[in-house]
Amino acid sequence: MRFACILAAIGTVLLSGVSLAQGFEIEERVVYDATQGDAEIQVLSTADRAVFEPILLAFQAENPSITIDYTIASTREVMKAVEGGDAQFDLIISSAMDLQTKLANDGFAQTHRSDATLQMPDWARWRDQIFAFTQEPAVLIVSKSAFPNGNVPTSREALIALLRDEPERFLGRVGTYDVRTSGFGYLMATQDARMSESFWRLLEVMGRLEPRLYCCSGAMIQDIRSGKLALAYNVLGSYAAGELARTGGFEIVVMEDFANVMLRTALIASNAKNVDEAKIMIDFLVSLDSRPDLIEASGLPALDADQLAENAALRPIRLGPGLLVFLDRLKRQSFLRSWEASITQN
Question: Using CA atoms, how far apart are residues 135 and 124, in angstroms rounded to an integer?
Fold first, then answer.
């Protein structure tokens, strides 16, 4: 394996559900020790280690003098850590584009320009502070055991009709994000609502079926595989594809009416200590499209403007101030009230 020679250099500190002194909770932390020098970079990320490790190892293969201290937290906890100001991280990586935009807008990001970033599409970077390096659709996943004869819905209208017509079949077996706690889930829900009124009708139908609400895509995928869920809505497609390749047992559906595409982004923290190292990693990440080996190993699709142009159903979420609308306190409260009224009909 390409990265096997580096594995011996990893010193791992595994933490789970730990509240740090700075007041935010992390899921895991791993340190990749340098082999040739004493430089370092502190990374705070929402990307699971199983997904992101091939990229980290490849980066370190090119930069053996840099120790990588990689901390994983939820989107909301990442936001809390950076806004709190006490946490010391150099690079912030997140799937919640709106929260990253807010951080940059509020002065928590540094500007970076390089040959690599200037070659990026304009829609993939914002103010030379937020840099996208993947494009990942939100998808529907369905258990093959729950759909033995196929007939899988491929649009929201078809999904609404199926759930409405066969409630006994899906009672307690539908999953989606709890947008009150998941930053990525909230982003997907608000984008759905902006795209089509069918989102609210879908929520109301789901709400009558005692849906299960989740923090993250991994948990939904696990319950699809175990048979607890028949289907899960708005799952992160890259995670689903990776698990499907390993285990099978379910089908991934990119909705034909539209599929919101999340751009995973990185920014350099305003209080970063290791700015040069953070810039090197930014340039490495935004060049992911030149590394098909890493795309395959991580399961993270690189930016691909041609793919977006070929499939009109793929709707990339645009970076910019428009993402801040639903982060307004009153807007958020109003959206969550409507969401709760639809999804929790007890």
Answer: 10
CB 214: neighbour CB atoms within 10 A? 23
Place of tokens 């055991």: 145
* Other beta carbons within 10 Å of 110: 18
Residue closest to 278 by CA, chosen among 25, 39, 38: 39
**255 neighbors 141 (Cβ within 8 angstroms):** no
Residues 6+ apart with CB under 8 A from 149: none
Domains present along the chain, CATH in parentheses: 4-135+263-314 (3.40.190.10), 136-260+324-343 (3.40.190.10)
What are the beta bridge partners of residue 42?
Answer: 69
Higher-scoring residue by pLDDT: 241, 276: 276
Contact 57, 17 (CB under 8 A): no
Asked if 155 and 307 touch (Cβ cutoff 8 Å), the reply is: no
Q: Give residue for tokens 């990588």.
A: 68
Lowest mean pLDDT among 194-203, 241-250, 329-338: 241-250
Coil vs helix vs strand at 338: helix
